[in-house]
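Q: What would this chain look like folded?
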Amino acid sequence: MSLSSFEKKLKKQIEAVLAPASPGLQVQVHQTGKKVCDLAVGETYAYYDFASLTKVVFTVQAMMKAYDEGRWNLKSKVKEFCPWFAHDEVTVAQCLTHSTGLTWWMPLYQQLDLSTSSLNRWTEGARILRSLPLQKSEASVYSDLGFILLGHVLESLYALPLIEVWERLKADIYPRSTLEFHRDNQPVHSSRYYAPTERCRWRQKTIQGEVHDDNTWAFGGVSTHAGLFGSIDDLGWFALYLRTQMKGFSKLSIKSKTAQLFASRARPQGKGDWALGYMMPTPGGSSSGNYFSPDSIGHTGFTGTSIWYDPSRDLSVSILSNRVFYGRENKEFASLRPQIHNWIIEGLKRV
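A: My prediction, written as structure tokens:
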């Protein structure tokens, strides 16, 4: 089975079941550092809302860089950097592993004065976060709020506004990428180049070129839990970057030892499948399907995006879609995504 026939078969497999899940999707596959698949299926666009992939493309990388620079360690408390935070015991590492006890989400945008500046709204968001009660649970609970809190930590670590933390990181790690935050919710390019997400009830328009996440939009398009836009090539390059980190030969600014620490399991079995900011496969229920090894790392995004790298197979799968165009309650993509990963591995075995 030739490589071209592998791609053709995969495209047919996806086309047969795509319609209920998403208007279209793009997928890139890299094996041993080489691109072996680059598909666009259905209606696709140049740029996509990365949603929670922002957590690993921006926030985790920024936290690794700050760790390398000795600005924090695994025992550091959030309160050391954010004195206004009410909970003395919560650590920065717990924010990364979703084990702070903070609830998974809340509609901050409903409590913010949208007529004020984005800076005021970001600051007001911190006031809401500072005294939220913590849930008593030994298990990790995926939390956007914990990652928003990391945004305030990063601002304190660098004494810079969050957007400047991003701009410095981008210049250092992603200088040739098209990755961007849309500041003040203004698209960098014409909105027609961006995959539309959904008809938003409270914004009363179809969201295209503006961040889908309600809280990030209210913050002015910039946050540590969502907000980045980019192309499939950007995400594919990030997959290769993860590979260099995991393989120990990264020549970029973050030390491989640090990257490998962050990619290692950080929660006990049964308490959460998390490294320091990265998802790890949950047996029998992973978005990476049935074949990715237990030491794989990745992440998903609410809009229908994902990145997974399996160091045992030296294989990465990058997916961008706008599955929320069919409504944010659409669950079909959650079934399609692991199946795509299964088809890829089964197909590559025959190449």
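The longest strand covers residues 34-42.
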